[in-house]
Amino acid sequence: MFSSIVSADWLQDHLHDPQVAIADCRFNLMQPQLGAQQYQEGHIPGAYYIDLNQDLSSPVGIHGGRHPLPDPDVFANKLETIGIHSEPPAGPTLIVAYDDSRLAFAARLWWLLRYFGHDRVVVLDGGLSGWKDSGYEVSSDFPPTKIGNFIPAIQSNLVLTIGQVEARKKLPTVALVDSREADRYRGEREPIDPIAGHIPGAVNYPWQEVTNADGYLRSPREQHQRWQSLSDADEIIVYCGSGVTACVNLLSLNLANIPGKLYAGSWSDWCSHQPSSPSN
Known about the structure:
This protein has ten helices and ten strands.
């Protein structure tokens, strides 16, 4: 299995490899157009822009959270326009995902591709800032639309619904992990969703702890140590606000060789089913 991370030096050496595709996943939850604007101003040469709202999510409904999983056919079509092949002879393409937010959005693409059966995906350690700090150039040129062939093979065992979470969260062998910042977990602050707090029984592992302040992933040994208190769990279910930054924790678990599952709707979906503020 290919490692889930690559360095800027590795990417520079493979920048023109026809079996490598680069995805710029920059996004800002409060300014949804900002990521695309930043991409237009400068990106890693050859990178295509992948938008969280348009490409990595489906339209918001009454339930399902703020970033429901994308429709498989729509997602596959987007990947094909950037030249992604899921099968030989042209594939499987290796996708390198990056952002400039400590992997908050690149990890969403990393997880989605694995969910859709494509394991040849990595994240760029250090993101765009690390790329620039390494002295490598950025470009404002837009790469051409390509023709790929992506066939989704959904791994349904990697995701859970609210009903499944409700049924499993009290089991002694299941650990439910809240990936949001500690003050949001405690219900002291809630800037986005209508209800503050967390799912009863959840423990808090903020997603920012997966990387250092410069956006570089902590070592696999540190990732493994981070999850030691949950070593007795047979199943780890991870959520966040809307199923995006939870993927950074799922990446951490992957680096520690520990399986994890995503409650895709996350807190925003949980809130939509609550008549009033839940107890913590």
